[in-house]
Task: structure prediction
Amino acid sequence: MGQAISPELREWVVAQLAAGHSVPSLRASMRDAGWHPEVAEAALAEVEAQAAGAAAVTPPRAEMPGPDLSTSPLYIDTGDRLVQVLQTMRHPRVVVFGDLVSDEECEGLIAAARLRLARSLTVETQTGGEALNVDRTSDGMFFERGENVFVARLEQRIATLLRWPLEFGEGLQILRYSPGAQYRPHYDYFDPAEPGTPTILRRGGQRVATLVMYLQEPELGGATTFPDVGLEVAPKRGTGVFFSYERPDPGTRTLHGGAPVLAGEKWVATKWLREREFI
Ligand code: PD2
Ligand code: ZN
Result:
């Protein structure tokens, strides 16, 4: 019985061939990433056959998460809170929100996360597993979706604010940056050219947007930076910075980082939104 070829695996094979990699090297990468040889062969054969016919056209993403800015609102009512719209940018799409998280919620999230912190792991696109990342020197943890009342309330607010189903969100990530800690510039989407990416994409497809919320402000440093456009967002408690990327591509200008904390401690909560339900 042949296994079905996922759209993600097909996409990855297309990207690799387009980048000039040979079929034998793709076969070896897929084997190393744990794909069954039959599935790998079927995916290669299918993509090669398609390439011989009409050129594949990737349709633009129909819908994206984001607030309704059509009336240039100063506030958005999320049902339980009036969130401020402080700043917007179109390319990259960035929106800075004020009064997004209450002091009580910031403190509740930090208290629940503190005991479970570990040196941050990031998703390892080579293999689809997790690994220590030298580019990120913060400590972190993940909550399950809806794990406690603070998490559940915030997730519902985010779903309303960004008009994206709650179930399409990953669990909330909490990060603590001590003095000197930083997160070097990176993209939050998964690199389509990496062999582990098809495995990662099985849980809800690509990431399409990020919301970083500041739970505790440092005394100095710790801005979220967007180097392509020279933007720095100050890590003010209760504020959040949203950005979205309709393609997993640097052309979205969503390169961003967490500048080194120079004094004090910075805590953030990050919500990543996927294309589909995140299981
Ligand atoms: O803490 C930040 O400012 C930051 C910067 C870049 C967080 C993330 N990325 C992230 O969680 O992806
Ligand atoms: Zn990031």
Notes: The chain is about 25% helix and 25% strand.
